[in-house]
Amino acid sequence: MIGGVNGGLLKRAAFLFGFLLLVFLLLLLRIAKIQTVDFEKYEEKVIDQMTTRSPASANRGEIYDRNGKVLATNVTTYRVFLSPSAISRAQKTLDGRKTDSIAREIASTLSELLGLDYDTVYQKAQKVGRLDETLMRDADEEVAAKLRTWILEKNMVNLVFLEATSKRYYPYGSLASHIIGFTSTDGVGLYGLEYQYNDTIDGTDGYYVTARDSRGNEMPDEYQSYVAAEDGLNITTTIDSYVQAALEEQLENAVLDSGALNRACGIVMDVTTGEILALAVYPSFDLNDPWELAPYYKQKLAASGLVEGSEEYSTLARQYLLESWSNKALTETYIPGSTFKILTSSMALEENLSLLKNSIFCGGSKNVLGQNIHCHKRKGHGSLTFAEGIQHSCNVWFMSIGQSLGIDRFTKYYKQFGYREKTGIDLPGEGMGVISSRMTELDLAIYSFGQNFTVTAIQHLSAIAAVANGGTLLKPYVVKNASDIEGNVVFENTVTPKRTVVTAATAKTLSEILAAGVAGEGGAKNAYVAGYRVAAKTGTSEKKGVTTTGTEMYICSCVGYAPADDPKYAMILMVDEPTKGLLYGSTVAAPYIAKTFETILPYLGVEPVYTEAEEKLMDAVIPNYVGLETSAAVSFAESRGLAVTVVGEGKYVVSQSPKSQSLYSGESGKIIFYTDDTKESQAVVPDVMGKTLVEANAAIAAAGFNIQIGGVPDADGKGGAVVVSQLPIAGTLAERGSVVSIELRYMIKDD
């Protein structure tokens, strides 16, 4: 019996021993696995529990214009954050009880310094399980300085923290906004070059690893590590800030003067390289605050009649915001109108279908497949040569040219000029125009004068530039290169020819015809710039589909390049849905192309060459005669061709009208010298609006004023140019002899 019991105990003991041995072996295997196979996994968990990782932000690369001006950069801002767990420990009293006095002091001070809600700060300070609680992400240096002082004075060093971060900043505000684009609050490119080149500009963040004990306190330095951030590359654009500003100014003027309801856009391109010197949309937006609607849209929103705060109001505001960011020059398509006639003409010249001396008769309309298609001049132009057909923009003439070309050849050139493909410009969101893939003879007739198909502004200007530069279609681009912090160029964009479309002879002939039209009898006379031969063509097209008002609306545009005998720069300007004045490209767009060229060509080093007639109308500067002896002042002034009137008996000139540095136009002017305390006499400025130059000059001279002439020349008044603006305005009292500035413009419908 006893032996049986002992035997049973031994068996159970052996079983228990074997079981324990098995468990022990399994534990050994588990430990071995943890120390070998799963070592890195558990090491990472331990490290995560013992350390905190703080980012070391990389600097985003800067964006420059072609001359090195900074268009986008970074400024230091500060993240303000708390350590609630540290605050909780600091609030324990000597007897172990807790208080919230420190949390309340922090909430009181920081809510005031940072402009935050007291309760919000206090609640964050009470989250005792948190090591890091952010209060503000973009405090400026002034706020940070005050905060540092307070932290040191109140011994909050381990409770409240400042972390330097980088924020995107655009020194010129809205300049080139549709090119540069902007970033998110996290520094990720959302639009424009910031988006297109995000991977290039954006650096690689580094980080600090800080070891902490079980209470969250930092451990000695030997337990810390640092991985350096790698800054992004800087990019240099082809944009010239001066040219960009000039284009933006004239776009704004074009929109305001015409009452355009659907924005305007323009581009300036170097025709020899494809580089974009300027690209703008009006209205622009503030790159430093892109979420704020521009005044243009605020006015439209206010005029909508919607109740502010309503869902409909908010929806429309969001729609306007998205529209304001949209790059109209790239993303939207439009009917080019008569500006396309440059391309139809080049096709015909290249195919030698129309000798320059041959004529085509325009009776006012042409019948195509039973459809009677009218010319813009319903009475007809009569017999027109090749040059006259282009300069008078005769639709019948162009339909005849298109018919001679035929569908196949027209389609071939249309494709070669790049209208069936995107240009490949290095900006996001580029669209592409639309034309029928099953063209009929009726389509061909209408397409030949630029109607019923669409293009983008960048597509169209690229094609025009191909004619300007001698026949080569180039890829446009806006970034010259990218370089590292030491200035080493990492990559570079270069001139990229796509194909030759027409010969240099064709291009040269067409340039001469277009330039002669601007200087003579063409519809683009308002694109004239004194001293420069500009080749230009205007266009007007009726909008198809939905318009802003739901009624018939137009797009008015102009394309041009200069100097015509050696083209360097091409420009396009398009105004969408103008509502005021004569609604033609010749009046809505061409004058602003001229003003932009007038501003940028001298800056870009293109030397003017004036004709004798232009020299007679050039502005002259009134010198300063004050302080001279009267007799000497009279002698000097008369030697400059000025008619002098002396008022008073004094020996010296004490004042003069016009004032020194005033500009006047014409072969001669007048000046009044006052030689004593006699009060300068005044006169009423006459109303010369709508008058010809001859009429305006006579009225202004008769009233005792000098004249300054702007706009287009029309010395004999036979060309139809009239005054469209004057300063000072009519009825204003002004000093006799002072200058009245006028702006002349041809009021023509020959698009």
Structure description:
With 751 residues, this protein is of the alpha+beta class. The mean pLDDT is 88. The strands form eleven sheets. Strands 2, 3, 4, 5, 8, 18 and 19 form a seven-stranded mixed β-sheet that branches. A five-stranded antiparallel β-sheet has the order 10-9-23-22-21, with helices on both faces. Helix 14 crosses helix 19 (504-519). Helices cover 35% and strands 23% of the residues. The chain has 24 helices and 33 strands. The radius of gyration is 37 Å and the shape is globular.
Quantity of strands, as a count: 33
In angstroms, what separates the terminal alpha carbons?
127 Å
Indicate the radius of gyration in whole angstroms.
37 Å
Helical proportion, percent range: 25-40%
The main sheet comes to: 7 strands, mixed
**Apparent shape:** globular
Mean pLDDT across all amino acids:
88
Strand-residue fraction?
15-25%
**pLDDT < 50 stretches:** none
Number of helices: 24
The secondary structure category is alpha+beta
How do the strands and helices of this protein lay out in sequence?
Layout: H1 2-35, H2 39-50, E1 51-56, E2 63-64, E3 70-82, H3 84-90, H4 101-114, H5 118-125, E4 133-139, H6 141-153, E5 160-169, H7 177-180, H8 192-196, H9 198-201, E6 206-211, E7 225-227, E8 234-237, H10 241-258, E9 264-270, E10 276-282, H11 295-302, H12 311-325, H13 328-331, E11 333-334, H14 341-350, E12 359-362, E13 365-368, E14 371-374, E15 382-385, H15 386-391, H16 395-416, H17 441-447, E16 455-456, H18 457-468, E17 472-474, E18 479-483, E19 489-492, E20 497-500, H19 504-519, E21 535-542, E22 554-562, E23 569-576, H20 585-588, H21 590-603, H22 612-616, E24 620-621, H23 630-639, E25 642-647, E26 655-657, E27 663-664, E28 669-674, E29 682-684, H24 693-702, E30 706-711, E31 721-727, E32 733-735, E33 739-746
Parallel strand pairs: 2-8, 25-28, 30-33
Antiparallel strand pairs: 1-6, 2-3, 3-4, 3-5, 6-7, 8-18, 9-10, 9-23, 11-16, 12-15, 13-14, 17-20, 18-19, 21-22, 22-23, 24-27, 26-28, 29-32, 31-33
